Amino acid sequence: MGVASYFEFVTTLFGWILYQGIWAVLVDTGIVFIPLIAMVLGHVLDSHKGGDDEGSAAIQSLKKVESDFIAMLGVLIFAAIPMLDVELTDMEYHKPALRCTDTPETIPGTATGTTYDATLATIADETGAIPLWWAMLHWVSKAVTAASVAAVPCSYDVASVEYRLAEANLDDPVLNQELEQFKNDCWRPAYSRLSRTTMASLTTAEKQDATWLGSEYLLGSGLYDRYHSTVPNPQFAFDATRDAGYEAYQVEGGFPDCRAWWSDGAVGLRRRVLDNIPADLRNEMIYNADNLIQETSTVTLSASEREDVFLRKYLAVKRASEAVGSDMPLAVTYGDGAGQVRQGRFADWRNSENPVLQRAGNVLNTGASLILGEPVRDAGAAGVALIGSALKAPAAMGEGYAMRNGISLFQSLALMMMIIALPFLLIFGRYGLRALITLSVIYFGFHFLTFIWAVAFWVDNNLIHLLTSAGGLSVFASGTSVTQSLILLYVSRFLYIVFPILYLTAVGWVGYHAGTSGLLEGYGQKSGAIGAAGGHAVGQVATKVATKGKA
What we know:
By secondary structure, this protein is mostly helical. Helices cover about 65% and strands about 5% of the residues. The protein has 3 domains: about 1-160 and about 400-515, no CATH class; about 170-330, no CATH class; about 525-550. It has 23 helices and 5 strands. The longest helix has about 35 residues, at about 435-465.
């Protein structure tokens, strides 16, 4: 039995274990026979209400009971009574290669290599049971879905780059403090001097390059040679010539100039920051043969250039508040408006510099106060705060990352709840073929959500790649447009939430009409029409024969 995610190992096995237990309870209590008894009693009462039609009422009622009983018995045997065992040893996850850096693999349920193994071990000895119809439908659904997912081209996971970089904390507090010190002692005075002197003569690329700590322009123009560390650095040995006048601190370390402080191959900040980033992330982004920076760039980069691109993006995403308690970004790669968006300042509309948000806040606040009074006015202010938080594009990247990675849990849980409820749904549907068709369409629809989210993954990543391709560096470009960030945020929400909801709505509509006005009803109507026409024709022939006989 195949599954579509690691979590589905747990929910599928658990669901069919509960199905078997619930069905046993319903059998022991006799509830499973209630639809059969209700069907027989219903036809008997209908025949009595209809009166005696030349003695054929009982025969007609018996025929109806017979035909309905055969149909209900078929649903009961094939779609309700659990017959096939469901065991963890028979379950597999055929993991697709949606990311171009992944390879397809088959993962057994007994050894997933994830934290789910601990939970699965508690139910590994349990055995569930599944009816024949649902076993066949499960196999068909997974086969169709897997084939559909395989047709989706792979893509590089650029949608989660910013969150993964923000999540990669520098665990060394000394290194974090040293980055802040470098910003204060080197980048800030060098950038300030550049702004006062030659900023107007720089090209656009040089101006953008000068906005981060490891700026190639600041290193090459000699500006970093003018400044040095103002505190002793234990990473650098004391140099009597370079550090003259600081002899009192020679035991604590040296005072390197900013160029050496950043670029030294062994103890420079550049090297040490790279070495402190988790190796798997660093290799995936920079050093692997199919590294993400090169694969998403339209220009060829050397290993050193890829390191600089990575560091610039990393320091742009990481805020100093996450590292050393400051609210200033370590690299200024966004404009003032983008900085406010990223830091969530739009959430406070009273202090916002955005006139649109201020106006909206004042209108809602005044309206709520006039109409509903003071208590609700505060609620209106809270509502505007929520509107403001929704506008925080880069700041909401964690929300988007969690949404993309956690949305598939809904599919597994929905399937589990449907499996648990199936005995009751079949009983309430009186073991009807129409109810079975409706439930089958919905069951298939839940399985096919895997393909819907695979398409969403491809569209999301490629859309980000298209909208952030400035300078040929795609998502690793130094600048980010607030408008683009907002577009990507809401398109991502549509792809992963709104689009599946629309799809499930359509599936429910099709399932309902397939069960209530689909093939079965059409067949019944045609059969009735044919029977009526046949009876009418036989009646006409009999009348003619009787008339001729009299003549």
